Amino acid sequence: MLVRDRSHPHRSRPEQEELVNGPVTPTAAASVAERPVPLDAVRFAPEGMLGAWQHRNAEATLPHCIARLEAGGALPNMRRVTGEHAGPFVGFHFSDSDIYKVLEAVGWEAGRSDITPLLPWVDETVDLLQRAQRADGYLNSHFQVDAPDRIFADLRWGHELYCLGHLLQAGVAWARTVGRTDILEMGLRFAALVDERFGPSCEAGVCGHPEIETALVEVHRVTGDERWLRLAEVFVDRRGHRSVGEDRFGYHYFQDHTPVREVTDATGHAVRQLYLAAGVADVAAETGERALLEADERIWRSAFGEKQYITGGLGSRHRDEAFGDPFELPPDRAYAETCAAIAGFQFSWRMLLATGDGRYADEMERALINAIAESTSLDGTCFFYSSPLQLRTHRDGVHEQAPSERAAWYECACCPPNLARLLSSLHGYAATVADGRLRLQLLTDCTVDLGATGVGSGLLHVRTGYPWDGDVVLRFDEPFTGRLEVRRPAWATEVAVDGVPATDAGYLVLDGSTSPLSEARISFGMPVVVRAPHPRIDAARGTVAITRGPAVYCLEQADLPGGVVLEDVAVDPAAVWSVDAAPIEASGWGAPALRGWARVRTPDAGETYAPWHPSVPGGDEIDVRLIPYALWGNREPGAMRVWLPVR
């Protein structure tokens, strides 16, 4: 196992073993049921979906993000502070956060692969930030130049603490992977200023966009300094007392309508809500306060039980990027921002650590395989901001709201860097340990260093085509006498271990204590399942969705015969769907298409609202091909839908 040299920011050495922690690492005293394995304990294989995706992120997405920080204005904005750029401020005033998220992404990648080509950019950017930072620690490219008299004057929309949160998380990444501390030190100087201004006995204020809370807890975990945990707790305690002031979106938008411990549902701006909930979970873990965890459980049940799309997308309303009412989930008007899916993944991970309940990992998987995977083009350089589940015929163009094709960047570019930092650290979410046993939470082709996890010695090789193939082979290169548990997804109704039907719920238990394990074979049955929407989802009534394993499928215009309008296609819920033997080659993920049939019923030209009459079965029968939702939009722009009308 390679060890990072803490004495130099860019070197590694093998003289002594040292584990590398990932993005969320509770302290030894934390009240959690599960703990993440060290970041370098798991290595994804390039043959698997997650390994191939992570490699594409390193080779294409990260360099693309770096280039766009320059072209999109974020770095020139920062140079305005040092007097090296004379142009106007470009973009939104929180664009600094994009710089920090990319720095974080590269930091996590430094713990996984050789980032030598990116190091000059990192060094130049850190030098720029150091020169831009004020002597008192303050750092913000907008306020320092364009509104110095408004510093900390508009916490509701200023995003100053939000940006600081991302700077701190970048610092955590570099400190943990290679021992480089200069980024974290910048963040700590800024955080000290914030503590002096808004700390426990100071001015009562909260940031309009939560993020600082979870970052401060992780800084506490890195430094051991209780000061940062106290400050995070202060911001959680102050939330919900309407301190952000009146605004056109109302207090719910900022989660400032009700004290955190009294909240009953997920509401307001989706990303804000989920980032806050993640921070609350972190504070609860480190303080042991049950009331905070119970509040998070209520928020989670609301968000994932009544307000989540089948793809894992969260946030149905466009106007304020917000959660709607329970079951307000229109497919064609889904906002489902990429950042919200990522935030939901992060929230669920913390709830998994807190409780050990596999349902949280199920929802992480749903989002990852569908809503998050769908966000990026196959070459890794174009992105969806929002993720509709239906795109109507004649809809075209690049829009943040219901686009027909991905864009290379956005004026509000929060999603691409967010995706990059998740993917560069994704292997850190694959497994957990507790009570001397190891749990596999995300199944993919990978290798696990059992010695690094503390539950054995040697390597565990996981070989699988999951999520497209349900067969999983586990091979130990040394006899394993410990306990291994493999998550059994809720959708997996038929599971066998070494050919024997499994009855374990939640996790499949492989116990080597009585008979050492050398190999085990798990088979998750993956039939095609036709799913109906909840009766209260009015916008999807009379339709069905097609799934296989954790993957949601969709119908694209590109797979219909010429002249057929997608809106005229209806399916038979009883129809039999077959799985293509050959994968969709362009994906590089081994993902198969599904084949079936449908009927086309062209409506009569006439009134938009005609008198009702009983429908008559009929229409022309056609062969149809469905592809994973994760892959839509990679051919010519055209209509698409997940929920298909029933004939």
TrEMBL record:
GO terms for biological process: carbohydrate metabolic process. It comes from the Bacteria. It comes from Microbacterium bovistercoris. Residues 1-23 are annotated as: Disordered. Keywords: Hydrolase. The keyword Hydrolase applies. Residues 48-426 form the Non-reducing end beta-L-arabinofuranosidase-like GH127 catalytic domain. Pfam families: Beta-AFase-like_GH127_cat, Glyco_hydro127C. InterPro entries: 6-hairpin_glycosidase_sf, Beta-AFase-like, Beta-AFase-like_GH127_C, Beta-AFase-like_GH127_cat. GO terms for molecular function: hydrolase activity. This is Glycoside hydrolase family 127 protein.
